[in-house]
UniProtKB/TrEMBL annotation:
Keywords: Cytoplasm, Exonuclease, Hydrolase, Nuclease, tRNA processing. This is Ribonuclease D. One of its GO terms (molecular function) is ribonuclease D activity. CDD domains: RNaseD_exo. GO terms for biological process: tRNA processing. SUPFAM superfamilies: HRDC-like, Ribonuclease H-like.
């Protein structure tokens, strides 16, 4: 293990830094962390050609030290997974996002409870989607360097500039946590806030049925009939292959490639290759498979074609309905002193409308928790008045 002291010369928090680059050193540290009330966490990862994020560095601050875990040297994550899952140890992160996915995939554990300081700042009315650099600049008058943010974190050894950058991502979080937790308690918003932390983790494991993945393809609304059947088959294959081979979706086939194949409907290998929608290596490996999928989709009877994807502009009164729902959100947000965007973005509201209009078999992910409870009655009223028949999942929620 290597220890040093790091931090900007004007930083209010300077901690010794300890590297954890063996299973034994990580296990020993985890025993100490199990006794902590809260831990600050961050990661550096790479995700260019892979489906899953590749952890390159894990930073942890326990209030006494900053620990840098080298994932390239660890093959037993069980002690750390136990810390992540320990409900008595709050995990403090800023804009957790893909970090949660990286931890779940690499360490095999969900983070609970999660205290996301970016989300807490929004709940406290101090700004929505604030980056950590902006928060540190405002609160601590320290300018965080971003020069090494986009460097290759998998290369060893890391430079001192990379180490300093990584350390600054966690040294402020515990102080922010103590302040924001007390503030949200005074505002009586902690219950909703903790729910959102749980939902952020649940989103990592949320999976749409394969049969509905075509709906996420850009410009899929341009397709009809047999074209949709082709897009459905290709999108499902792409997801399964991406997960099985840990390959990014776009590296296999981009959305525009799916749209092109669906519209052009190549019937033989020459037609397929002439469209030039795949990287040559991907075409050699998977081209015949995709051509077979296209042929299989072409053979489907019309009764088995997937339904078109509605656009808000295509829905009668859709724009007005969205505005009415947004008005309900603004009123609720003002009454509870919350940013409207934190409650429901317009994109989220649009997804609710389209899911109802297209009568999808399951509710969109945004329709759950305290938001679902708060808006069930007013949204039911608005959709019903707009002549939209509520799908089964909506009626089940309403009962």
């Amino acid at each position: 293990m290597q220890a040093s002291t790091t931090g900007a010369s004007n930083a209010p928090f300077v901690f010794p830094v300890e590297w954890l680059n063996s299973n034994e050193s990580l296990r020993s540290a985890c025993q100490r962390w199990q006794q902590c009330e809260a831990l600050a966490l961050d990661t550096e990862f790479e995700r260019v050609r892979t489906f899953w994020p590749i952890l390159a560095l894990i930073q942890i601050c326990d209030g006494e030290k900053v620990y840098l875990i080298d994932p390239l040297k660890i093959d037993d994550w069980s002690p750390f997974a136990a810390v992540l899952a320990n409900t008595s140890v709050v995990k403090v992160m800023h804009a957790a996002g893909e970090d949660l996915e990286a931890f779940a995939h690499t360490c095999g554990a969900d983070i609970t409870p999660l205290f996301d300081t970016q989300m807490a700042l929004a709940y406290a009315g101090l700004g929505a989607s604030l980056g950590l650099a902006a928060v540190v600049r405002e609160r601590y008058q320290v300018e965080l360097s971003k020069e090494t943010a986009r460097t290759d974190w998998l290369v060893r050894p890391l430079t001192q500039a990379q180490v300093d950058y990584a350390v600054t991502d966690v040294i402020y979080l515990l102080d922010l946590y103590a302040d924001l937790k007390a503030h949200l308690h005074d505002l009586e918003k902690l219950d909703w806030f903790w729910q959102d932390g749980e939902q952020a983790m649940a989103k990592v494991h949320h999976q749409e049925p394969d049969a509905l993945l075509y709906r996420r393809v850009k410009q899929v609304n341009l397709l009809r009939g047999q074209e949709l059947a082709i897009a459905q088959g290709l999108a499902s294959w792409r997801e399964q292959e991406a997960k099985a081979t840990d390959t990014s979706r776009n590296h296999l086939i981009r959305d525009e490639g799916i749209i092109t194949l669906a519209q052009k409907t190549p019937k033989n290998w020459n037609d397929f290759t002439a469209l030039n929608v795949l990287h040559p290596k991907v075409s050699r490996l998977h081209g015949k498979t995709l051509l077979n999928l296209i042929e299989k989709a072409r053979a489907l009877p019309s009764g088995q074609w997937p339904l078109p994807v509605s656009r808000l502009l295509d829905i009668k009164g859709g724009r007005g309905l969205l505005d009415q729902m947004a008005s309900e959100v603004r009123s609720f947000a003002e009454a509870h002193q919350l940013p409207a965007e934190l409650v429901y973005s317009k994109r989220a509201l649009e997804s609710i409308i389209i899911a109802a209009v297209d009568r999808l078999p399951q509710a969109p992910f945004v329709w759950r928790g305290w938001r679902q409870q708060a808006f069930l009655n007013p949204f039911t009223h608005l959709l019903t008045n707009a002549g939209i028949a509520l799908p089964g999942w909506w009626q089940e929620q309403s009962s």
